[in-house]
Design brief:
α3 packs parallel to α5. This protein is mostly helical and about 130 residues long. Helix content is about 70%, strand content about 0%. The chain has five helices and no strands.
């Protein structure tokens, strides 16, 4: 736990090097809200094959907030995928189950954070509301 806290703190310090703390923290907060909104929309939509779109969209929206939002998107995305790998390990053992899906999720996360259009991952027929 101390190592995790230390890594988060170090990445926060490095992310703020040329940015004011207050602005960075505000962007991070808003970026975290963007990530939560994408997750909530994904759960609400409950649409087959839409997972990657919501990953890309959440990261895209958060990163547009600025360096703080991009940082929050990366931390949240990495934590979520790390937690999923752990639960898959307990559920399926060391079979590698879910590894390809996790890599694809991370690809969509990076795509969105880089500012590219998240609609690349949008499945046909997903309601326009999302």
């Amino acid at each position: 736990m101390k190592l995790c806290t230390g890594l988060v703190f170090c990445s926060l310090v490095l992310g703020v090097s040329s940015h004011s703390w207050l602005s960075f923290l505000g962007e991070a907060y808003e970026g975290a809200k963007d990530m939560w909104r994408a997750y909530s929309d994904m759960r609400e939509a409950n649409y087959k094959n839409a997972d990657k779109y919501f990953h890309a969209r959440g990261n895209y929206d958060a990163a547009r907030r600025g360096p703080g939002g991009a940082w929050a998107a990366k931390v949240i995305s990495d934590a979520r995928e790390g937690a999923q790998r752990i639960t898959d390990l307990f559920k399926y053992g060391s079979s590698g189950h879910g590894a390809a899906d996790s890599r694809a999720d991370q690809e969509a996360n990076r795509w969105g954070r880089s500012g590219k259009d998240p609609n690349r991952y949008r499945p046909a027929g997903l309601p326009r509301k999302y």
